[in-house]
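Need residues for this backbone.
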């Protein structure tokens, strides 16, 4: 090859790959399927971003590696283009979201992703805003609704004043909106919820069987927040209640500290507050509650001092019999464990702070068993120990006491074991335009009625007034033609639900759609804004996403690659839906992704990329200037794929030089038939290293090993003839295969040159990307060097250093490399060879 010229080579190969459908997978015929999935992107800017390039390249390398390892890889792509992120961008640029998303998805795909030289199969592309896609999103809603897993209820929900919609708990980060960072308020609204809480234990238990990064599992465990403990009843001691046996329940993880409960606290929102506040305290309590309700959870949590107010009432500690005062305080959360706590100031930090502010008694009931002195400096001992000040339980270990106290409470009928979860139900309704309408109607006579499956999709009406209204209603509420409908049950007049589904519902099931979808049909439908309804029985429909034979072959997904930031959002929702699908009989497994790999993030000159800093890396420019191969390889060389790395402009030149050098060594006069043992060893070691590294997503070290190989073979120039400076055919083939996943274009070009192939006859089988991944010979890896004696007709003629364990063929080659041996062998015919491994070779001539 004359010169490394990516701008010529790359488009040529992409065109040929497309023409030969190189990366299209035969879903039905595949025998050894491997579903390699990358988290589909959402277009939220004019062009794709280097983060997309980075993430999609790593996933592509994995897919190519698996393909060369004999798997039939399905690697689809699509866009998560329905929902708030796209709509926010549409608002910003003043375009209708439909028109904008069509344009952006096309651009991302055709001008950007495709130029990366990826091996994604675009023939199964899905876009979540296509009516043919969201009819199934709606169908899923209906399924869950029928099964009692979707429910409309009044609840205090997170309201983002800037996005003008509710958010799920998972979409609130430290009190701020996950998208726009505005401080989230809380509002009492009627909303649709999916009952993910029913799956709390299932979600937890299965974490033990899936091959996911530990950090993601820990995030999910914490988010689900399972706490084992007890519910304990505290009888109300108050003249008002004296003849009724009323009590309040609290949740505690430490029933063993019950004797130390010296006060009682209610959340400001608790219905008990009103009942328990004595007349003389009404004003003060009223003021406190009003103030507390005006604060966000974030603001409440940030207060330095614990605040609160006495209600005037008392409850009775069920074991000590003591009357303890009831307070209202905003450190108690209404939505957890019943919204009340028993205050144990000696052993709970928050209770301790509260007791200090209000001068309440502190009774120590657990004594630390260890005499470590640093515990003295701690005011609150939260560990296990021996019970004191606890009546008949004194002297007992706290773990044992926990059980004993529980048994006693249960016998007396004033307590029971209990488990609480931090996980809340998933709020899925949004008061926005750009989403799948929730397929429910409200009838004057029949009440809440679900839209029949055959009527799906409930099409999102086209309108110019699609911007958020700022009220608690979606813009759809203003479209009369949409809102007014007839009841499917009684034929009377009815109104449609006007909220749309959370975008996280769209993205919670797309991996089921990919294999079932045949892209051409979808694209045709997209053109005419499809109105095709579900008319056949669903499971006979061509695009029914849950066809049993396809599920059986392709799902669960073998490998999922994506960002760790989705740990408790997308990655929890997908698991939940999959479990629900199994319970609904739609599928036969309960985890969507067997393996998950979390890639890192790219920074620019050490800083997070952002528009305001003006340090955004635009992939197009780099591809234009250096070619996709160099860009891909450079991105993967930045650091461990799981950790991310820092992008610097200067690094790309080095990568171009490396690829150019590969061209030189591979395209030299590849004559050397017998390789020296050092070179063989280097090759096998490189194969081992690259194989293991690519398998483990350690792409940067794999690239480093390839560079090292090239460098070393060039260095040895002085000691050998000129021909030796280039790779032998064997080395060249191995190099191209190992490099193919990283730099797919140049390796394809060189592979064809090496094989003298005619481009016109290019087929899958001739592509380097469909070759078998090289295997290394373990003998070269572990081998130590030994001295082999070379004899000719039983006489010592030389000694050579060889690797231990080599076979006779190699041993002969090495022996014949020795000058003096060659002299004695000249013009002689070898009759017989006697080979004693690691010791001797004797040529009988
Ligand atoms: C008495 C006690 C003594 C507690 C002690 C802890 C230590 P997790 O692990 O988060 O489940 N609690 C219960 N409901 C609460 C609410 N609505 N708002 C704020 N705090 C609440 O913690 C459970 C513990 O948090 C419970 O156990 C309770 O305090 C408190 F030495 O009860 B504990
Ligand atoms: Zn009706």
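Answer:
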């Amino acid at each position: 090859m004359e010169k490394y010229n990516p701008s010529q080579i790359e488009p040529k190969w992409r065109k040929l790959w497309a023409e030969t459908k190189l990366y299209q997978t035969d879903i039905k015929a595949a025998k050894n399927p491997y579903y390699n999935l990358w988290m589909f992107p959402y277009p939220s800017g004019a062009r794709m971003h280097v983060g997309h390039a980075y993430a999609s390249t790593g996933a592509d390398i994995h897919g190519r590696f698996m393909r060369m390892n004999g798997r039939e890889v399905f690697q689809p792509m699509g866009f998560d283009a329905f929902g708030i992120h796209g709509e926010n961008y549409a608002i910003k640029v003043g375009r209708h979201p439909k028109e904008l998303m069509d344009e952006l998805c096309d651009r991302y795909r055709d001008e950007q992703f495709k130029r990366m030289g990826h091996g994604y199969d675009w023939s199964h592309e899905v876009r979540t805003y296509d009516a043919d896609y969201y009819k199934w999103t709606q169908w899923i809603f209906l399924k869950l609704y029928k099964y009692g897993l979707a429910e409309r209820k009044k609840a205090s929900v997170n309201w983002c004043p800037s996005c003008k919609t509710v958010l799920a708990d998972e979409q609130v980060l430290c009190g701020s909106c996950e998208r726009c960072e505005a401080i989230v308020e809380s509002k009492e609204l009627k909303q649709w919820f999916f009952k993910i809480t029913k799956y709390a234990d299932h979600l937890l238990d299965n974490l033990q069987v899936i091959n996911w990064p530990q950090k993601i599992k820990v995030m999910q465990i914490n988010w689900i927040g399972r706490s084992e403990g007890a519910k304990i009843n505290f009888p109300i001691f108050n003249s008002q209640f004296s003849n009724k046996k009323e009590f309040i329940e609290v949740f505690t993880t430490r029933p063993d500290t019950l004797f130390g409960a010296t006060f009682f606290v209610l959340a400001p929102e608790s219905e008990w507050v009103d009942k328990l506040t004595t007349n003389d305290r009404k004003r003060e309590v009223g003021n406190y509650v009003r103030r507390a309700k005006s604060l966000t959870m974030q603001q409440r949590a940030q207060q330095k001092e614990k605040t609160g107010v006495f209600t005037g009432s008392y409850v009775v500690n069920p074991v000590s019999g003591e009357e303890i005062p009831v307070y209202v305080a905003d450190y108690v959360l209404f939505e957890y464990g019943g919204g009340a706590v028993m205050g144990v100031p000696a052993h709970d930090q928050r209770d301790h702070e509260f007791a200090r502010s209000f001068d309440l008694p502190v009774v120590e009931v657990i004594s630390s068993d260890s005499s470590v002195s640093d515990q003295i400096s701690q005011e609150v001992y939260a560990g296990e120990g021996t019970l004191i000040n606890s009546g008949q339980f004194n002297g007992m270990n706290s773990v044992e006491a926990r059980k004993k106290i529980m048994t006693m409470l249960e016998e007396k009928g004033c307590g029971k074991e209990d488990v609480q979860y931090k996980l809340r139900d998933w709020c899925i309704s949004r008061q926005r335009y750009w989403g799948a309408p929730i397929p429910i109607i409200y009838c004057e006579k029949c009440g809440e009625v679900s839209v029949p499956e055959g009527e799906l999709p409930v099409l999102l009406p086209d309108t110019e007034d699609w911007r958020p209204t700022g009220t608690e209603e979606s813009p759809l509420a203003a479209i009369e033609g949409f809102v007014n409908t007839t009841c499917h049950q009684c034929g009377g007049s009815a109104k449609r639900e006007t909220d749309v589904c959370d975008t996280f519902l769209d993205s919670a099931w797309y991996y089921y759609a990919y294999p079932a979808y045949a892209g051409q049909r979808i694209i045709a439908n997209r053109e005419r804004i499809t109105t095709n309804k579900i008319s056949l029985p669903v499971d006979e429909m061509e695009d029914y996403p849950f066809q049993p034979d396809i599920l059986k072959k392709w799902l669960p997904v073998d490998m999922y690659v994506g960002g760790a930031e989705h740990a408790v959002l997308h990655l929890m929702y997908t698991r939940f839906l999959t479990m629900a699908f199994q319970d609904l009989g739609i599928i036969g497994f309960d985890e969507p992704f067997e393996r998950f790999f979390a890639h890192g993030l790219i920074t620019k000159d050490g800083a997070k990329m952002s528009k305001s800093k003006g340090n955004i890396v635009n992939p197009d420019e780099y591809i234009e200037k250096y070619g996709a191969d160099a860009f891909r390889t450079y991105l993967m060389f930045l650091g461990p794929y799981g950790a991310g790395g820092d992008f610097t402009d200067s690094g790309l030149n080095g990568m171009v030089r490396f690829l150019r050098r590969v061209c030189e060594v591979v395209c030299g006069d590849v004559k050397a038939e017998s390789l020296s043992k050092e070179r063989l060893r280097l090759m096998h070691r490189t194969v081992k290293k690259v194989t293991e590294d690519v398998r483990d997503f350690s792409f940067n070290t794999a690239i480093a090993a390839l560079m090292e190989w090239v460098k070393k073979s060039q260095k040895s120039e002085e000691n050998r003839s000129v021909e030796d400076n280039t790779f032998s055919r064997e080395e060249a083939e191995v190099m191209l295969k190992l490099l193919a996943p990283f730099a797919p274009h140049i390796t394809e070009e060189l592979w064809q040159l090496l094989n003298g192939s005619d481009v016109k006859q290019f087929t899958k089988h001739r592509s380097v990307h469909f070759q078998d991944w090289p295997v290394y010979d373990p003998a070269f890896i572990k081998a130590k060097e030994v001295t082999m004696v070379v004899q000719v007709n039983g006489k010592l003629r030389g000694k050579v250093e060889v690797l231990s364990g080599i076979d006779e063929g190699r041993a002969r080659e090495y022996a014949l490399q020795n000058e003096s041996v060659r002299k004695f062998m000249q013009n002689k015919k070898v009759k017989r060879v006697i080979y004693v491994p690691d010791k001797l070779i004797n040529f009988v001539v």
